[in-house]
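Figure S4 source data
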Amino acid sequence: MYKVAICDDNPADLQLITDYLTEPEFHYPLELFSFHDGVELAHAYQKEGQFDLIILDMMMDRLNGIETALKIRKVDQNVAILIVTATVEYAIEGYKINAARYIVKPVSKREFQKITRNIFAFIDKKRGAYYRFPSKSGTTVISMEDIFYFESDIRSIHISSRQGDYTFTGRISAVESLMRIPESPLGLWKSRRKAMDFSGSIRVSL
């Protein structure tokens, strides 16, 4: 799950970004928080805790994007910040607050989703805590903390998780390689009667 804060004092732009993030084909597990100005975000940051990504409009009343980000950087040096700006001349300001990227309005869905995917991939690399697999809607992403176990049935992989059960076509060796779990000498993944969770413990399916 990614905690994402969207801060923009223009309701239409705020809704547009929300729509881009919640489209079914984007398919990332998100918890979204909307803020209508920088003061609101800076104040709420103390209560909501840390976010994974902050999408921040540059030109806002009361506190602009840079001023808001500077307040956030005082308490969180790691959160990824994506600056949304109406003009390129303000993009250089993003370096002051170590912004991950910036994007110029009007925001293109294709460009925005590409940038956010790259940011999420960077977050995943730091965490090493998400598993992706193919699904009918494209790609499903599950937090490793939410996965109970993987199970192999011929060329199908079954995942049991807090969100539910999933099945996709694949080989358990690929999962094994990705998760870096030593291969069992008993070959227990290859039996529908047995499975292994991501921590390496063994369980028997009932």
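Figure S5 source data
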Amino acid sequence: MTVTQKMPHKSSRNENEKASGATAASRLLIIRITSGIDAVSIGSGKVVALLIVPMVLSLVYEVVCRYLFSAPTIWASDVSTLLYGGFFMLGAAYTLQRQQHIRTDFLYEKWSTRTKGIVDSVLYITLYFPGLGIFLWIGWQFAWRSVMQQERIVSSPWMPYIWPLKLTIPIATALLLIQGVSELLKSLYAASTGLDLHGSTESIET
């Protein structure tokens, strides 16, 4: 008896190769898009990080003047508060890109990559984008009104302008929405493939 081995059909191999190529191409496209968005958040984070320098200097100056020369300033506390507010708001997108926002890790870390992707995708679509979209609209009106009125801090003897700080609200929200697109794409990819793309863009931060 002669046993013949059935060879795989050539068209089946071609279809598998095409499917594999399409998957690789889609992965590369997603990585390119998310890397570009991540670069914006990383760049903005590095620029915003520079605000910590004048903030610390103003605090040090106030301490020296107050305790060494008994001559406290009327502006140092306001400057440090305004800078810290901007630092806090504008660094939110960078924090999201680095996956450093608070979440319930005791549950989240036990899930598989696919489950994390499914949950994250649902939450980004149903809560994150609608919520931030509303916040952007309200925040822009709030900030623009402050700009038009040239609003100041009336409780301070120095009375500095407060509108630059309020303007960071819509700017920070817009940056969060942009970074959210990257995070949603990563989550959708994880949900469909079970693979995590968050490590693929870490090399762009040097």
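The mean pLDDT is 89. Residues 103 and 109 are 10 Å apart (CA to CA).
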